[in-house]
Design goal:
The chain is mainly alpha-helical. It folds into two domains: 63 residues, no CATH class; 85 residues, no CATH class. Helix 1 crosses helix 3 and helix 6 packs across helix 7. The protein is globular, with a radius of gyration of 19 Å.
């Protein structure tokens, strides 16, 4: 096989990865790949999620239809701020969630965009599910975020806020 053909095959083989990399910055994005590999860590699941989304073009469909973990509100989200906040405030946040209120929990609610009308439900839900959100004293930030996202997603009134995590 000639060098030209090898180069062409390599380019075509990597094209879905490049296209997907522009569309999904992390496994936590939206699209079928993100759903298939949700909760998995490492480079391999992230590359597979991106490749799946890029190869099948399903992310555009998800955004258009509001499915596959995508939404149609036109807001581009990043959960790095939430991760940094939780990581830097674990003890205070755990204390506030355990009692259903406090400055750190209020700050998290603001960061997630929880409306004033939903704050009481947010505080009560995090208190009721404290053991799920903080399953251990040394729980990782990723585990806390995944649990909080799941708890909010299961709540009829608060499910819309899970997208911010």
């Amino acid at each position: 096989m000639s060098n030209r053909k090898i180069l062409a095959l390599a380019f075509v083989g990597l094209f879905p990865l490049a296209a997907g990399a522009q569309q999904v910055p992390s496994v936590g994005g939206c699209g079928l790949g993100s759903k298939l590999f949700e909760g998995q860590r490492g480079v391999a699941p992230q590359v597979l999620a991106v490749t799946t989304n890029g190869t099948f073009g399903n992310q555009t469909f998800g955004i258009s239809s509001g499915t596959l973990g995508c939404n149609q509100d036109g807001v581009v989200r990043s959960n790095w701020k939430t991760a940094m906040f939780i990581d830097g405030n674990k003890e205070k946040l755990a204390r506030d969630m355990s009692v259903g209120g406090g400055e750190t929990l209020d700050s998290l609610a603001q960061l997630l965009g929880v409306e004033e009308a939903d704050r009481a439900a947010f505080y009560a839900t995090t208190r009721q599910n404290f053991g799920r959100i903080f399953p251990a004293a040394d729980a990782s930030t990723d585990a806390i975020m995944a649990s909080l996202k799941q708890v909010l997603a299961e709540h009829e009134r608060l499910s819309a806020y899970s997208a911010a995590i």
